[in-house]
Amino acid sequence: MVVELLNTLARADPDAADSVIDEALARIGTTCGYDRTYVFRMRDALLLDNTHEWVADGIPAMREELQGLPMEMVGPWREAFERDEAVNIPHVEALPDDAPVKAILEAQDIRSLLLVPILDKGVYKGFIGYDAVRAPRSLDARETFLLRSAANGIAALLMRSDMLREMQAARAALEDSNDRIAATIAAIPDLLLSLDADGRFEECHSNEGVTQLMPSEMFLGRLMEEVLPPELVRIGRDAMARIATEGHCPSIRYSLLRDGLRHWYDLRAAPRAPAKGSTKQRYLFVIRDVTDQEEAQRRLASREGVLRALFTQSPIGIALHDLETGRFVDVNDAFLEANRRDRDEMLGLRLADTVPPGEHPMIRAALDTLERTGRYGPVEHGFARADGSVYPAISRGFLTTDSTGRRLVWSFVEDITLR
Fold first, then answer.
1. In the structure, what pLDDT confidence band is assigned to residue 1 with cuts at 50, 70 and 90?
2. Is the model's pTM score more than 0.70?
3. Residue in 394, 391, 386 with CA at minimum distance from that of residue 345
4. CA 379, CA 157: separation in Å to the nearest integer?
């Protein structure tokens, strides 16, 4: 019976381990005259769970009640289990009354039992048990050997099943990781290039919206010098050299003429692990078309240049001040000339410092209107010069907000002294 059982356990599909083990426990119990056969497995290195059980007719099942038991339950036998020794108790009633396990065994009406450890590479993982309830059982060495052999077959199947589950979990995790990486790559609006240590193109990935300089089949497996213009080879080699010396490569922006139009690109490069069986560094190039961004920045810079020129050359005074503090942030030359102050002095003043005290209520009313409507004026009032004189002016302005959320007021101040 034992040889046949061991063959069945050895050939069993690990996916069907639970049902095969249940059948094996039933067969051992009925053939060998035991009343309860079972498996206990360790959980989280602290608890024991009764994972499998067979009971003879008329014997109460205990599996549901024997979950999450403290490891101390096997305290007296733990050292024997770790030495890969079976525990054979032919007569429970003969145990000393102060033995911790005696009360536990008698509570289950167990009169004899044999426990065989489950070891995984020498590490204790649980045990397999045979209980005699109706009558005590004394085993000779041959019977003990055969029952232990059957238990070892069950333990081996459990280990194979665990290994299969771990492999399946690892495979599922790997597939999930690969799916996430693939989805991430698919969403990246960049050209991804992998190069070997010599600068030879190994892999290429681009999305539908990414325009390549040439089809992949024209450059994969070839060196940069064989397929790229000299200026791109120089950029690529520079990126590789930076990685070799500094461990990283900051963004490199470059441009190319394509179809008569200039296109701008950002190249970012990073080291890549050597191929299996090699120690040579590889490289990952990430190239993004930033033409729209570059053109927008250039248009913005051009617009800012025009506005700065208008600000500087305007014959009307222009001042920018902080609404909360009243302090001047910037002024143009016309405003400085009208107020007869230099720039450093003016930027150290507040709006209230340049308006005669008697006209402060008028300015506060204008600023109240500004906060409600976003603009103020025209307001006719005086400005106090550095020499104490006052000149008449008409002011109008609007409210704006900078990138930090600070509220600023642009004021256009016309000197009307000559009117």
1. low
2. no
3. 386
4. 94
Please state the length of the chain. 419
Beta strands in 208-316 (DSSP E): 249-258, 261-272, 282-289
Closest by CA to 386, choosing from 333, 328, 340, is 340
Distance CA 26, CA 411 (A): 95
SS3 58: coil
Q: How far is CA 105 from CA 59, 89, 100, in A?
A: 14, 11, 9
Residue at token pair 């055969």: 146
Distance (Å, whole) CA 126 – CA 120: 10
- Residue 3: count other Cβ atoms within 10 Å of its Cβ: 10
Number of Cα atoms under 13 Å in the Cβ half of residue 230: 0
Does 364 score more than 90 pLDDT? yes
Q: Contact 336/343 with Cβ under 8 angstroms?
A: yes
Residue 336: φ, ψ to 5°: -65, -40
